[in-house]
Amino acid sequence: MITLTRVVALLGGLALLAGPAYSQDAARRGEPPAGGGPFGNAGRFGFGRDTIPPPRMMTPPGWQDSKWQKTVDIGNQGSFELRNIFGEVRITGTDGNTVRINATKRVKESNRDAARALMDSIVIRVTERGGGVEVFTENPTGNTTPTLIDYDIVLPNNALVSVRSQGSIFVSNIKGELRAEAYQGHMVLTSVGRVRRAKTYTGNLSIAGVEGDEVTAEAGGALRVRNVHTRTLETRTIAGSTNAVDVDCDRCTMTSTSGDINFTGALRRNGRYDISTNSGNIRLLTDGSSGFDLEAVTGGMFRNDFPLKSTAPASAATSGRIVRGSYGDGGAILSLRSFTGSVTITRPGNPGPGPGGR
Fold first, then answer.
1. How far is CA 35 from CA 30, 39, 53, 58, 200, in A?
2. Segment 124-143, tens digit of pLDDT
């Protein structure tokens, strides 16, 4: 009986220690839906267990909140800048010349009067200058109470947008220039135009539905790019995988330190595709409608589904690690480099090696 009592006491102490951390996480995300959510166990954007949850809609138990809103007018192609502390940001583009800012201040404080006083001391500063709008969140100096500010913003879809937040960022229907950085959260960009900079420092990044001339993206976690039609595409990951599906670009540069890179799409005749990873695998799926000139460097296996005409004699020194050849008219330029992983070039629906593969 004494042993059982000690075990129960120990488990109780561990639960108390874990409680605050769980409360913080619940405040940021809330509980995920049972069964892995509407996207199943594969994750919302196909990243496995690294799911990107939707924006928070409700305040969790133990937290107090208050609403704040403001409406200002800017030109149809004016600029909008937001700097937030901890919290989520959702930005949606629409017609018109009006910016509607809705914010929810949240503090982890059970006493309503203390919570109200703290929320009143959190300043949301809106400045109009030069045809643009700047929004800055100022947390009281010395405040140690967990604090979140969530933004839901509607603005002209042709505006130039710049946003930084410690939480997750969700942007949709913005056709103007976009710069976004999420320091401790995920990022989802949907139906956007010119993505000058999209970066997550620790979270996953998803970009879908782009019609513009430039996309530059960097993810601390996994990166997914889908239905992107752009002149230049430049992506970078550290340890997460990169999945590019239905990508059409003149110049694609995709790099990773240790993650896999998967590219699916038709090649432009004069396009250039520079894909490299230090320790991951590279897989390129294309229909073969355009020819290509290939240089592949691999520390693992090389598998190819297209008949290649050698453009350089094999060297005993490379021991098959470097493959150079052309397929068809050799219009597109492929440079695929995986220094310890494998390189695969194949047709959709045919994952195995084909003619000329090994």
1. 15, 9, 14, 20, 27
2. 999 998 789 999 998 877 77
